[in-house]
Design brief:
The complex is a heterodimer of chains A (about 260) and B (about 350). Chain A is built from eleven helices and no strands. With about 260 residues, chain A is mostly helical. Chain A folds into two domains: about 1-45; about 55-260, MetI-like (MetI-like fold, Orthogonal Bundle). Chain A starts with a helix and ends with a helix. Chain B has about 350 residues and is an alpha+beta fold. Helices cover about 20% and strands about 35% of the residues of chain B. In chain B, the strands form four sheets. A six-stranded mixed β-sheet of chain B has the order 6-7-8-3-9-10, sandwiched between helices. In chain B, helix 3 packs across helix 4. The longest helix of chain B has 18 residues, at about 165-185. The model of chain B has no long low-confidence stretch (mean pLDDT about 90). The chains are: A mainly alpha (about 260), B alpha+beta (about 350).
């Protein structure tokens, strides 16, 4: 009896969480202009409309470029920071770790406004660079958390062995440390990309006029009407932000089993 | 010229001094063991030779070259760790070839030398495997092959056998010694295991609290400990307070209550300078328990009562009481071990005794 209630309750919770998403995906294939049931037929016309909508495609390109750059910068910075924090005795290590992780804990609005005000104070206007910097700031903690955890598990002995065999510290990093770190680097990069791709709060504050990312574009479109294109766009976003990390995780696992870790 | 020489090495970590004024000469081609309990500074010393730690003071030279300012990757050393430290993302062959890739060695020469090294450690067929597919013993052999394939000036072994099972450890001990002798590489071995040290070394350096206690061949260190620490650390020893009554040329006479006068050769008491209090050292396996009244045949004998008996199969360790002294003896068992409470005669040779001056250090 009790178990049955729990089961039903669980199913209801899942329905509550995923039904809206399922509806969006379903309606994106609706042939009818108005999103209502019963559906009148299946069609991919809204994806075509989407493809031909210049504003959306521009936003899409912006999002991809922004996401990739955020991922690249965050990953490089994250790996360097993790190396410094794990491999070297630096004074105030705990404080630095906390500060680097803090952007996760600070409400995004606060972070967004403060970065904007700070840069205004320094007389920097809104720009793509500001937007990129903002995204790097709040994706960096995720990269650091993942990479640091992995780096701790790589024994110093292995690096010392490479050094003793004649590899310089730099060669040791590229031949030993980085390959062993790769699953975490890939996972961190993917995190950074998806978080950046998804973000709206910070982006609304930081983006200069005339630049839209996919979420801000959807946001402005929704202000006018709920167009069926948005369902299609939603479907594409879901595929990207859910599918990519899954593929990434699978690749990471494959890499990890091959290298025996 | 020594292969490795340390002169007046000091290593401090903050206020803590890990190594005090250590000087050491290691001969070309020899197998030298740094032996001591954990925290005695042996690993710190090894890491300084390797270049993984910088000495606070003093000079380190390898083959006549001062290496204090030479980073580890330019020292041409072979390093083997307790945990193997193989590169998990590389095959066995790639692991072994790793060091050769940073030296000017032609491709087919690399192949030949990797094959030869794998042959030497008797694992010629494992080149294509990954380290996780190997047993601990196999991994340690590969780690050894990886370290010697570069023909290092010095091979440094940091407790390489400690992670292995007991049986495997004995096999590896023999194997390691065979490989070292066949290539003749100068080897510095760090261990806390006296059996390994005694079995493998040309020379043992016993360390305690960052200081060298004694340097010598295994037999010398075992038979003629230079300090109380060495006497206690190697083997099971009895240390008794005695008095030196006379120090004649070539011999030392000792008195202790309840015992006959002990007349030991001077070379077993090199540091006893004259009459006064001394410590008598006698190994547990040099004390023989006999039935009361057994003929002594040139041995000294005292009456004793058996206390606890620690039965070990082929041998037994007896704790015996001689007057006020508690002593231990390890004897092979002939028929039955002696029983607790039994009266026995304890026999030993005077030349198996050693004497040390009484130390002021606790």
């Amino acid at each position: 009896m009790g178990w049955r209630l729990i089961r039903i309750y669980t199913i209801l919770v899942y329905l509550f969480m995923f039904l809206p998403i399922a509806v969006v995906v379903l309606l994106s294939f609706n042939a009818n202009q108005f999103g209502s049931f019963p559906m009148t037929g299946l069609s991919t016309r809204w994806f075509e409309v989407l493809w031909n909508n210049d504003a959306i495609m521009r936003a899409f390109r912006t999002s991809i470029v922004l996401g990739l750059m955020t991922a690249a910068i965050s990953t490089v910075l994250g790996v360097l920071a993790s190396l410094a924090l794990v491999r070297y005795r630096i004074p105030g290590r705990n404080l630095i770790t906390t500060l680097l992780i803090a952007p996760i804990l600070v409400p995004e609005v606060v972070l967004a406004v403060s970065l904007l005000l700070f840069l205004n104070f320094l007389n920097f206007g809104k720009s793509f660079t500001l937007l990129l910097a903002g995204h790097v700031i709040f994706t960096l903690p995720f990269v650091i958390l993942v990479v640091q955890a992995r780096l701790v598990s790589i024994k110093r002995d292995v690096e010392e062995a490479a050094l003793s065999l004649g590899a310089s510290p730099r060669q040791t990093f590229f031949a030993i440390t980085l390959p062993l770190l790769m699953p975490a680097v890939a996972a961190g990069g993917l995190f950074a990309f998806t978080i950046s791709f998804d973000d709206i709060t910070g982006t609304l504050f930081w983006k200069p006029g005339g630049i839209e990312t996919v979420p801000t574009q959807i946001f402005s479109m929704l202000r006018n009407s709920i167009s069926p294109e948005i369902n299609a766009l939603g479907t594409v976003m879901i595929v990207l932000t859910v599918g990519l990390p899954l593929i990434g995780a699978a690749i990471a696992r494959k890499l990890a089993t091959r290298s025996g870790l | 010229m020594s292969a490795v020489s340390l002169s007046q090495i000091v290593k401090r970590f903050g206020d803590y001094t890990a190594v005090h004024q250590m000087s050491l000469e290691i001969e070309e081609g020899s197998f030298v063991t740094l032996l001591g309990p954990s925290g005695c500074g042996k690993t710190t010393t090894l890491r300084m030779i390797a270049g993984l730690l910088d000495p606070t003071q003093g000079d380190i030279t390898i083959k006549g070259r001062r290496v204090n300012d030479v980073p580890i990757h330019k020292r041409n050393l072979g390093l083997v760790f307790q945990n193997y430290a193989l590169f998990p993302h590389k095959t066995v062959a790639e692991n072994v070839a790793f060091g050769l890739n940073y030296r000017d060695v032609a491709k087919d020469e690399v192949k030949r030398r990797v094959a030869a090294a794998l042959e030497l450690v008797q694992l010629p067929e494992l080149g294509a495997r990954y380290p996780k597919e190997l047993s601990g013993g196999q991994q340690q052999r590969i780690a050894l092959a990886r370290a010697i394939v570069i023909e290092p000036d010095v091979l440094l072994l940091d407790e390489p056998l400690s992670a292995l099972d007991a049986n495997l450890r004995e096999d590896m001990r023999v194997e390691l010694k065979r490989i070292q002798q066949s290539i003749g590489v100068t080897t510095v071995f760090v261990t806390h295991d006296q059996t390994e040290a005694l079995a493998m070394s040309d020379q043992i350096i016993v360390m305690s609290e960052g200081r060298v206690e004694q340097v010598g061949a295994p037999e010398d260190v075992y038979n003629t400990p230079a300090t109380e620490f060495v006497a206690r650390f190697l083997g099971a020893s009895n240390l008794l307070d005695a008095r030196c009554t006379e120090s004649a040329p070539g011999r030392v006479l000792l008195d202790l209550p309840g015992f006959p006068r002990i007349d030991i050769p001077k070379e077993r008491a090199p540091r006893v300078s004259g009459p006064g209090p001394v410590r008598l050292v006698i190994r547990a396996e040099k004390l023989h328990l006999k039935a009361p009244g057994s003929p002594a045949e040139g041995m000294l004998s005292v009456d004793a009562v058996v206390g606890n008996v620690d039965y070990q199969g082929q041998s037994a360790r007896y704790f015996v009481r001689v007057g006020d002294h508690q002593m231990q003896a390890v004897n092979m068992i002939e028929d039955h071990p002696f029983a607790e409470g039994e009266r026995v005669t304890l026999q030993f040779r005077a030349k198996d005794c050693a004497a040390l001056p009484v130390e002021s250090r606790p």
